[in-house]
Structure formats: C-alpha cells, structure tokens
Design goal:
Blueprint (H helix, E strand, L loop, with lengths): L10 E4 L13 H12 L7 E3 L11 H15 L5 E5 L4 H13 L4 E4 L13 H14 L4 E5 L10 H10 L3 E6 L4 H13 L5 E4 L5 H6 L4 E4 L2 H16 L3 H19 L6 H11 L17 H13 L13
Parallel strand pairs: 1-8, 2-3, 3-4, 4-5, 5-6, 6-7, 7-8
C-alpha cells in the first residue's frame, strides 16, 4: 500500500461546494463546472471535497464515493484531491480511506465523529482507535481537523501532539480552534515535533491575523468563491509584505461579512447564493435542515460582493 502522488499539505486549498438540483439530487454537471472554476485559479495547492462546504453531513456514503470519482475525472493529475473522511463509524472511516486511495485521492481530511461531543476529549484512546482504522486502510497523508474549542470536539494540545507522533501520516492540522492564543501555541508546538506538522488555518473570518502568525497555508470553503484573493493574501504574507497583505485583506473583508455573520451554519448556503449572483451557479439548492437565505440576506450578499469588487467578469480573477 503506497500513495502514488506524495503530497505535502500546505498553501491555499479551497474546499468546494456541492450543487444540488430542484429535487435535491446532486447536480453533477454543475459540480464538474464548479471544480473547473476553482482549478482555473493560479497558485492553489489542491482542492478539498466532501467537507463542510460540500454539505457532507447531508451526503450519503455512496454520494461521497461518487464525488471522489467525479473529482478525479475532472482534475486528473492537474491538482491534488483531498477527500474528507466524515462518518460516525471508525470501520466506515477505514473503508472510506481505502476507497479514496484506490480512486486516486492524494490526501485525507479526517473529521472527528460528532458523537464525541459527549466527552471524547477525555478519552483520547477513542480518537487513536478511529485513526488506526484509517491508517491501517490507507497511507495517504492526513489533514486532521481541529474543531473550535467551543464544539467540545477539539483535541487538547497534549493529545494533538501525541496523535501526530503516533500517526506519522498526519502531515497537517486544519485549525479552527477559534482562540488566537491557542491557535499560535498549537502551531508553534506542531513545528517543534521531530517530524513537523503543518498548520492550515480555517479562521476565514480573521484570515490575515491567522496567516500572520506563521500558518503553512489555509483550507477554507470561502475558496469556493475567492480562491484567487486567498492566494494573493497568502503570497503577500509569505513575502512579508504587510502593506500588500492589508490591501488584499480590505478586498476580502466584505466577503467575510457576506459569508460568516451569524448564524454561522448558513456560511456555505451564502457562498452558493454568491456564485448564483456571480453567474457561476444556475441555482442554489441546499439540503434540509439547511434552508435558502431570505431575500434581504441575498440582497446583503450582493451588496457585499459589489463592495469587494466581485462581478461575473472578475470572479476567480479578482486578484489580477
């Protein structure tokens, strides 16, 4: 068992959306076009599928498998495919990991089972067991999802470092811890490991501040709309050009208000609406219990896109 295309998770990695039709089935043609749109952005390091942005909570196992096949068919070897592993079952997680590797995925984004909100952080051996099912089935690089502290699903720092030591295929942490102090502490400690582990921020609501702390990249659903601006911001931070980074962040900020205002669970619904307004999706269906934003909110999204300088002609090219 060996991964055909070794992949180091760093840089800008957008997480794609999943379009649905009026009957709430997957709109495969729209999905393919959406992948092509994101892939057209110069400088991205890969595309994540079957993540929160794709409403993975509402996808069947078969649909998640189909997404891997379709994504590889579209992207081929042009860009790495990072496949989410999202399931309550460790056994199913192992099967998902094996399937992703068989179909040519380049890395895995591993979510914690949501039932572990009941105190899983007190039983790190459960997380170890979950990861062992995955690593026994696949040797693809793993991006481990570090949930917000408030979710009761985040790994305590000691557990996080121990997991990285025990499972050397963990090559990055997707960090959404939600606490700036802890965010920086984790990042620094992960870099001190004998085999350093990258930090990919998903703090999209305060991206400039997060990247400035030294993140190795970002993994964000907002990249489904503004991947080009994310690439420009990351490049400016990496170059140490704070003035340029601030200017790009000023262009990103209206999209923060468009996507990430409360309630946060509407963030990816709003991104779909943005792509409809920008002419990149024909329709913006979401699966229940999510519901379509109301007219006032859609109007707000449109206003924020205008403020950001995003139009049908500039989307995915707005950083040029």
């Amino acid at each position: 068992m060996s991964s055909e295309y070794p992949f180091e998770p760093k840089g800008v990695i957008p997480a794609c959306l999943m379009p649905f039709d009026a009957d709430l089935g997957i709109d495969e043609a729209a999905y393919r076009a959406h992948l092509e749109d994101i892939a057209s952005v110069d400088g991205i390091a890969g595309i994540t599928i079957n993540g929160h942005a794709a409403e993975v909570h509402a996808l069947t196992i078969e649909e998640q498998y189909r997404a891997i096949v379709v994504t590889k068919d579209v992207l081929g070897s042009r860009l790495p495919t990072i496949a989410g592993v999202y399931t309550e079952s460790s056994m199913e997680a192992g099967r998902m990991a094996a399937y992703a590797q068989k179909e040519g995925a380049d890395a895995l984004l591993v979510f914690p089972p949501s039932f572990m909100t009941l105190g899983g952080h007190l039983r790190p051996e459960m997380t170890e067991t979950h990861l062992k099912f995955i690593t026994d089935a696949s040797d693809l690089p793993i991006i481990l999802f570090q949930y917000p502290l408030s979710s009761n699903l985040s790994h305590p720092i000691g557990t996080l470092l121990e997991l990285c030591n025990k499972f050397p295929t963990i090559r990055a942490v997707k960090d959404q811890i939600g606490d700036g102090n802890l965010h920086e502490y984790q990042m620094r400690e992960l870099k001190k490991l004998d085999q350093p582990v990258n930090t990919l921020t998903t703090h999209s609501a305060w991206l400039l501040g997060s990247l400035s702390m030294g993140c190795d990249g970002l993994l964000s659903g907002a990249g489904s709309v503004i991947a080009d601006l994310q690439v420009s911001l990351f490049s400016a931070v990496q170059a140490g050009d704070l003035n340029a980074a601030r200017a790009i962040n000023d262009r990103i900020y209206p999209t923060v208000r468009a996507f990430y205002d409360a309630p946060l669970l509407d963030m990816h619904n709003r991104m779909k609406e943005a792509l409809v307004l920008l002419g990149k999706l024909e329709q913006s269906y979401v699966r229940p219990p999510l519901v379509k934003p109301g007219p006032d909110e859609i109007a707000k999204i449109g206003g924020m896109l205008e403020e950001a300088g995003l139009t049908a002609d500039t989307v995915y090219r707005n950083a040029a």
